[in-house]
Amino acid sequence: MTKYPTQESKNKRKAHVQFMSTEAMKNIYELGYPFEYFEGSCQFAIETPIGVIDYFGINGTWVVRKGQDRGKGIRKLKQYIKNKVGDLMEKVKVVKCAGYLDKDGNITNQIKQAMHFTDDELANLAAEVAGGKVVNVVIPPEKPKQLLDKVREESFQEKPKKKTKSNQSWMNKK
């Protein structure tokens, strides 16, 4: 029988996603590989020597998008991040990727429809989340949500984007 999520568990998951995406950003940034962060879907695309690896903050899933070495390299990467994040990592698994996530969180095979940041925007975002320093990224685990909110507010001021709060309030009413 399917267990339907309660509002409480939805809120808990939401907070977890927010926290995991902050933690993941810190740890993936420290790996030194170039990566892209898709804010709408809490997805990180990391370009590694073994191919592109996706991390989905929503369910803690690692995906090897392409590349022959699906064993040693991904295990090393997973172990590194698992050691860094610790018990917060609910599940770590490698699956085949069916496509890219668009800004609504749906899978698409059109890379153009996926949410993209330029390298500069990404570096600035990572730096702002980390408190303005690009090198030695450290995020206090007790307040990742406030930091992310602050970054969002600042990015809204620079260039107006569609706000998703209307959707969230509709979800909360149900």
Keywords:
five-stranded mixed sheet, 174 residues, alpha+beta, 5 helices
Mean pLDDT: 54
Evaluate the radius of gyration.
16 Å
> Biggest β-sheet, characterized?
5 strands, mixed
Number of helices: 5
Strand order of the largest sheet: 1-2-3-4-5
Structure description:
The chain has a 5-stranded mixed sheet, covered by helices on one side. Strands 6-7 form a two-stranded antiparallel ribbon. The chain is an alpha+beta fold. The protein is built from 5 helices and 7 strands, in the order αββββαβββααα. The protein has a domain at 7-117. Residues 152-174 are annotated as: Disordered.
Element layout with pairings:
Blueprint (H helix, E strand, L loop, with lengths): L6 H25 L3 E4 L4 E6 L2 E6 L4 E4 L7 H14 L8 E3 L3 E2 L5 E2 L10 H11 L14 H15 L6 H9 L1
Parallel strand pairs: 4-5
Antiparallel strand pairs: 1-2, 2-3, 3-4, 6-7
Could you write a compact summary of the structure shown?
The protein is of the alpha+beta class and 174 residues long. The chain has a domain at 7-117. It has five helices and seven strands.
